[in-house]
TrEMBL record:
SUPFAM superfamilies: ATPase domain of HSP90 chaperone/DNA topoisomerase II/histidine kinase. One of its GO terms (molecular function) is ATP binding. Residues 1-99 form the Histidine kinase domain. The keyword Transferase applies. This is Histidine kinase domain-containing protein. Pfam families: HATPase_c (PF02518). It comes from the Bacteria. The keyword Zinc-finger does not apply. InterPro entries: HATPase_C_sf, HATPase_dom, His_kinase_dom. GO terms for biological process: phosphorelay signal transduction system. Keywords: ATP-binding, Kinase, Nucleotide-binding, Transferase, Two-component regulatory system. The lineage of its organism: Bacteria, Pseudomonadati, Spirochaetota, Spirochaetia, Spirochaetales.
Length: 175
């Protein structure tokens, strides 16, 4: 969720989120067309003892990416981040679900609901897929399409319909 929020705050007009789950792994990729980072900025973003002091004025450290990298590497997963100034950032994460120390995946419906409802002028396409029984099932949710259908992502009625839609897609995927 924090990575999507970072993409929005970086001025992205489109964010692509892919979550591919199998019995032993969860692969997550995030692509954005935001402001991107230089090599030096990228190095600092993964340093737990650095913060730019802009986003969180009272913090002396920036732990988001460093904690993620630590969790992934300590549980035999993989992490890769690439960024180019004025072009965007790409992040690839592979969680090893077979490792006993890997944190639980959490509630996917709530995650998608929240990232679709962040404030801002951006589009987000989320693709969720599950490999099981020798095949792959998936669904896709697009923020702009949801806005077109629902009219907004602020009223209680629209938010309820959005949650119901995502929940129905996830239930179909898991059944």
């Amino acid at each position: 969720m924090d990575l999507i929020q970072n993409s929005i705050e970086a001025g992205s007009s489109h964010i692509q989120l892919n979550m591919n789950q199998s019995a032993d792994s969860l692969e997550v990729s995030i692509r954005d067309d935001g402001c991107g980072m230089t090599d030096d900025e990228l190095k600092r973003a993964t340093d737990p003892f650095y913060t730019d002091g802009i986003k969180h004025k009272h913090r002396k450290v920036g732990l988001g990416l460093p904690f993620l990298i630590q969790t992934v590497t300590m549980t035999d997963g993989q992490f890769d981040i690439r960024s180019e100034k004025n072009k965007g950032t790409e992040i690839d994460i592979r969680f090893n679900l077979a490792n006993i120390d890997t944190p639980p995946t959490g509630h996917i419906v709530s995650l998608l609901y929240q990232v679709l409802c962040f404030q801002g002028d951006y589009d987000l396409t989320a693709v969720r897929s599950l490999s099981k029984d020798g095949g792959e099932l998936s669904y896709q949710v697009n923020r702009n399409e949801m806005l077109d259908v629902l009219g907004d992502l602020e009223s209680a009625a629209s938010l309820g319909l959005l949650r119901d839609f995502i929940n129905s897609q996830e239930e179909d995927l898991l059944s």
